[in-house]
Write a structure and sequence with these properties.
The complex is a heterodimer of chains A (267) and B (246). Helix content of chain A is 73%, strand content 0%. With 267 residues, chain A is mainly alpha-helical. Chain A has one domain. The longest helix of chain A is centred in the first third of the chain and has 28 residues. Chain B is of the alpha/beta class. Chain B has two domains: 165 residues, Rossmann fold; 65 residues. Chain B has eight helices and nine strands. In chain B, the strands form two sheets. A six-stranded mixed sheet of chain B has the order 5-6-7-3-8-9, with helices on both faces. In chain B, strands 2-1-4 form a three-stranded antiparallel sheet. Classes of the chains: A mainly alpha (267), B alpha/beta (246).
């Protein structure tokens, strides 16, 4: 811990020193999540299955959404969406909850949102077991392209970290965001083709554009195409994903680094 | 920065917003912005504070409550960024500002030792090698796998102290912590700090016990309402401080 370091040097020195802390905090969250529950980690697999069952009953049978292999379609998209919503909503208040630490020891503050994103990533990996199970039960056998699944996950992860950095920094100053965000998430979810196919909104003028350019649509469609349709998205799509996630990340890093000095006065 | 110094503070000023309530909502923020009532009462916690601490010094900070002692420590350890002025330090810092910062009370002591170690920037491997030392010093053998919420405050302080002092840091910052635990443990803590003092560590101590400062320190600063009132030899400063408030 040397205050002489400035800027990027400081960043890399901190990263090295506090990497174990990052791992420990994520491990702590994981342990505490399942401590004292009988089924433990199994819940990470059961939960997506139950959600999928409810949704497919409501939307598939009652509202008659026409998608081939709807259960698979839904759970593949849901797993990535849930990663986004979980990581960002946990990150949002992470700096505020980190107050006891931030006030007492020197720490790089980005540790807190980053840790929540990592924790959500662990959960995503576990829910992929449920995804695989549903696919096999429905007879949607993944082709070799499914091995590319880490690519959309990585795009989405970078995007989530960037978005979390913005959210967590702003929430320190404006606590309203905590209440507003769940509403925003709901709207955002319905603007992402999770429980309906994109073709459903294709001809609605304004909405279709929002859905099309929604980054989460991009990541989720990418995820679906490699995991369940056996197709590999074009170079163009890849570049678009990369640019969106990196831009969000850069913006997040900028906002966070500008704001972090004043955190301690507001938490 | 002078290579003989461990810490250099130059013209440090620290301001806090003393608005009665923090603006925690957007509506409030914009309302005040529009009505131009976005003003704060400015509170100056530290005003033009400068001093150097030489390597190997045992440096005391004395003063009444609210004079800026803890703020100074937080600035030295990098927790607070001063509003004006510069702070430079050389060497690793072990902040003992509050023992057990970062303990999670749902975790067991064993898990917390590793967690707290990483809060202070120690690697897992390093903590593995020091684990037995920590357990032995804090005398916690029988309670290692109990969640910490069941611990007494003395037990928590013991573990916190044992973790924070497990290395030989180049700069050790001690804030009032010697006031915890029973007298036997206090003696143990002081012995460990003495051991560090002889081992070339620069120590910065804040305490309300002037006797303790006189006994341990060679140099001392006396802060009053955020300003340096006196700086120099520990015995002289303590003497003056004691006389001023008698």
């Amino acid at each position: 811990m040397n205050i002489k370091h400035k800027g990027l040097n400081r960043f890399f020195a901190d990263m090295k020193t506090f990497f174990p802390l990052l791992m420990n905090l994520a491990g702590k969250d994981f342990k505490l999540k399942y401590r004292r529950s009988f089924l433990g980690v199994l819940w990470s697999i059961l939960n997506p299955l139950f959600t999928m069952l409810v949704i497919t009953q409501v939307f598939g049978i009652l509202l008659k959404v026409k998608v081939e292999n709807f259960a698979t379609y839904y759970i593949v998209g849901w797993s990535l969406w849930n990663f986004f919503s979980e990581s960002t909503s946990m990150s949002m208040s992470s700096v505020i909850y980190g107050a006891p630490l931030i006030k007492k020891v020197y720490l790089p503050k980005y540790i807190f949102p980053l840790e929540k994103c990592l924790f959500a990533l662990i959960n995503l990996m576990l829910s992929l077991i449920a995804v695989l199970a549903v696919m096999l039960i429905q007879g949607v056998f993944p082709s070799w392209s499914a091995l590319l699944f880490p690519i959309p996950v990585i795009y989405c992860f970078i995007f989530c970290v960037g978005f979390s950095l913005i959210l967590s920094a702003l929430t320190v100053f404006f606590r309203d965001i905590m209440h507003l965000y769940s509403v925003l998430l709901t709207v955002w979810m319905y603007l992402t083709p999770l429980i309906y196919p994109f073709s459903l909104v294709e001809n609605t003028p304004f909405i279709s554009d929002i859905v099309r350019y929604n980054p989460m649509t991009l990541f989720i469609e990418y995820f679906r195409s490699v995991v369940m349709y056996g197709t590999v998205p074009s170079l163009e799509t890849n570049l678009l994903c990369l640019v969106i996630s990196l831009l969000t990340f850069a913006l997040g890093a900028l906002i966070f680094s500008k704001a972090q000095k004043r955190f301690i006065l507001h938490i | 920065m002078n290579s003989e110094n461990a810490v250099e503070l130059k013209n440090i000023e620290m301001h806090f917003n003393m608005s009665k309530e923090k603006l925690e909502s957007l509506k409030e923020y914009f309302l005040r912005l529009v009505t131009r009532k976005l003003m704060f009462e400015d509170f100056v916690a530290l005003d033009n504070v400068s001093f150097d601490i030489k390597k190997g010094d045992v440096f005391g900070i004395v003063g009444l409550n609210g004079c800026g002692k803890s703020t100074t420590l937080k600035i030295i350890s990098g927790i607070l960024t001063p509003t004006k002025g510069t702070v430079e330090t050389q060497g690793t810092i072990a902040p003992l500002i509050e023992l057990g910062a970062g303990f999670d009370f749902d975790l067991t002591a064993r898990e917390n030792i590793y967690l707290n170690g990483s809060v202070l920037g120690y690697s897992k491997k390093f903590m593995d090698s020091k684990f037995d030392d920590i357990v032995e010093f804090s005398e916690m053998h029988d309670f290692l796998d109990t969640p910490m919420k069941n611990y007494s405050s003395g037990m928590i302080a013991r573990i916190g102290f044992a973790i924070a002092t497990v290395t030989q840091p180049e700069i050790l910052i001690v804030d009032e912590i010697l006031a915890v635990g029973d007298f036997r443990f206090q003696e143990k803590c002081e012995a460990r700090i003495n051991q560090m003092i002889t081992g070339d560590t620069t120590v910065i101590i804040v305490s309300h016990s002037i006797e303790q400062i006189e006994r341990l320190c060679n140099r001392c600063v006396w802060l009053e309402k955020g300003k340096v009132k006196m700086l120099g030899d520990a015995k002289e400063v303590c003497e003056a401080y004691r006389n001023a408030y008698r």
